[in-house]
Every structure is written in structure tokens, then in C-alpha cells.
Design goal:
By secondary structure, the chain is an all-alpha fold. About 70% of the residues lie in helices and about 0% in strands.
Length: about 150
């Protein structure tokens, strides 16, 4: 029996580049009850290798629908990746706001806001520890070592 294209092309689907993201959308658009949409205009610009992955996965899905365990496994992997990416995006947004607030707290204590940029790793570790921006500014003012 031939290996499922959802296994064969997994690395292309899970890659960290724009065509891979598009292939993930292609896979998710087939998931039962999905409202995910995928634009097909990219078909005119992708290379032959990625087009083959698209065509093989599409043809296989047409024949087997969702009756391929490899399809289910890939969908779950894509969903997990989406959750991880969303969590990272949310963390980055929280960190960005925290840094703005910490710079304001540094100013209030008579310190340079650029102190945060100079010691970014240290400040980021305080964010990860759950310290408030004011805690971080107070610690910086006290000369807490990096």
C-alpha cells in the first residue's frame, strides 16, 4: 500500500515559510465542519514540488475523504501548531505592553527608559517571572544585578 500523501508531504505542510502556511490552510479547509477558507491564487506561483503536494493531498482526500488516519494526525498537528503560534503572539503582545509600562515606570523613578533596551534579557526574565512593570523599575533603580 502506498504511503498517504498526508505523511509524505508532512514536512512541507509543517514548514516555517509562506507556502507551508498556505498548505496548512489547504489541509484545514478539508476538515469536517471547517469554516477555514483557502485562496487558490497561490497555485500560479508555487513551485512544482509544492504543487505536487497540493495535488496529491487533494486527490487523496477526494478519494478517501476523512477516512485516512494520517489526515487526522496532520490536522491535529496543524491545530497544535496554530495554538502554539497564537500563544506566542499573545505573549509577545503582553510583553510589548509590559515593556512600554516598564519604561514609563523607569521614567517615574528618574531612570532612562533605554535601560530596558540595554538590559532587555533581564527585564524579559522579570516579565516571565510575573513581576509587574513597577517591580522591574524598582529592582532596576535598586541596582539589582543582571
Amino acid at each position: 500500500m502506498q504511503q498517504s500523501p498526508f505523511i509524505r508531504h508532512r514536512d512541507k505542510v509543517m514548514g516555517h515559510y509562506s507556502t507551508a502556511a498556505w498548505l496548512r490552510c489547504v489541509v484545514l479547509a478539508r476538515w469536517s465542519g471547517s469554516t477555514d477558507k483557502v485562496g487558490l491564487s497561490l497555485l500560479g506561483t508555487i513551485d512544482d514540488e509544492h504543487y505536487r503536494a497540493f495535488a496529491e493531498m487533494t486527490g487523496h482526500y477526494r478519494l478517501h475523504s476523512e477516512n485516512d488516519p494520517a489526515f487526522h494526525a496532520l490536522v491535529e498537528e496543524v491545530h497544535a501548531r496554530q495554538r502554539e503560534e497564537q500563544e506566542a503572539k499573545e505573549r509577545e503582545e503582553r510583553l510589548e505592553q509590559w515593556c512600554l509600562d516598564a519604561k514609563a515606570c523607569l521614567r517615574e523613578r528618574g531612570l532612562r527608559p533605554g535601560e530596558l533596551d540595554d538590559r532587555y534579557g533581564w527585564f524579559e526574565s522579570l516579565f516571565d517571572q510575573g513581576k509587574t512593570p513597577d517591580d522591574a523599575a524598582r529592582m532596576a533603580a535598586a541596582g539589582t544585578p543582571t
